Amino acid sequence: MNIGIDKIGFYTPDQYVDMEKLAEKRGVEPAKYTIGIGQERMAVAPLHEDAVSMAANAALSILDDEDRKNIDLVLFGTESGVDHSKSGAVWVHHLTDIQENAGSFELKQACYGATAGIKMAMGHIALNPESKALILGADIAKYGLNTSGEPTQGAGAVAMVLSSDPRILALDNDSASLTKDISDFWRPLYSDYAFVDGKYSNEAYLSFLKDVWGKYKEKTARDLKDFEAVCFHLPYTKMAKKALLSLTENAPEEDAERLMGHYQNSIAYNKQVGNVYTGSLYLSMLSLLEQSEELAEGSRIGLFSYGSGAVGEFFSGVVQPGYKAYLNQETHEALLSSRRELTIDEYEELLEKSLPKDGSDSETDTDKMKKGKAYLTGIKDNLRKYEVK
């Protein structure tokens, strides 16, 4: 039985910062941002959008009544959780009107969370072939103004429906994982902003890739010749190029050229959004599938997931015949092209805004909600309030 991705969609806030203008404001050569890290625009979330509302909006863009009836598992990978107890999955379950006899919970391991959800869902569907699972990866990446991580911020969500007999990507039932206790990136409970040792994190990422790729080859007897393309977790899009160069360092020229030939298509969406943490690998995969010419039936795509702290995994999937018919390319391109550009002053003011942390009531400015259906209306009696318009 094949198990994999039957539907996929994404959502991002309707406002962004131009990276060239941000670079100029910071006294940095613009090419450092646009070429050096490979980012063109950076999504910025207003107060009425958080990980929950973005995940709900991504899900609402793909779910139909049959999905709502058959989904019996909702798994939400995020490192931007909004409550220490209640999971974002429960809110999304309600906002999307999924049938009530579904299990729902949240998963956390930095940017690896959505991958953990996929792996759990595959096991669930293997035991329950009629089931469907909703997998969510939604985050707001924030490092603060004038920090080294500032140009690698972003906001967005990816939602996937996993099922048997998937129409987009059948996931292979093999993978290689690695866990090590390291401190390359973290965010303490008391901080709104993440901390990162950028150089060490890049080194750890590539070291994990080398390790899990080697283990994957041992387990499966596959090599680069067996892959049409490889997608990566993207804290910034230039990371994919570094990863590809590392992966193909001693590869035959034919394999290196084929894999690098898909690089630009696989980063097209991420360049416009920025880092979305748990969703970034799957936004890259979606970008590859939608921006490339239709890949041949049976083409295998490699997937490298990395979550700082750290967990890495290499796994793969096979594209299904006619998969293009089940994607929403026009919708996603329209979502990106219709956003409003923030001035640098607007961006700086917004980035430093936050909801109260002292238990006081607060309302968000929902009049500015232009895209999406789900949004955060505010906090009342220490409870977050969401609505769907």
Automatic annotation (TrEMBL):
Keyword Transferase: yes
Record InterPro entries: HMG_CoA_synt_C_dom, HMG_CoA_synth_N, HMG_CoA_synthase_prok, Thiolase-like
Hydroxymethylglutaryl-coenzyme A synthase C-terminal domain boundaries: 175-251, 263-387
Annotated residues for binding of (3S)-3-hydroxy-3-methylglutaryl-CoA: Y143, K242, N275
Annotated catalytic residues: E79 (proton donor/acceptor), C111 (acyl-thioester intermediate), H233 (proton donor/acceptor)
Protein keywords: Transferase
Residue ranges occupied by any Hydroxymethylglutaryl-coenzyme A synthase N-terminal domain in the UniProt entry: 2-164
Family: Belongs to the thiolase-like superfamily. HMG-CoA synthase family.
Protein name, UniProt field: Hydroxymethylglutaryl-CoA synthase
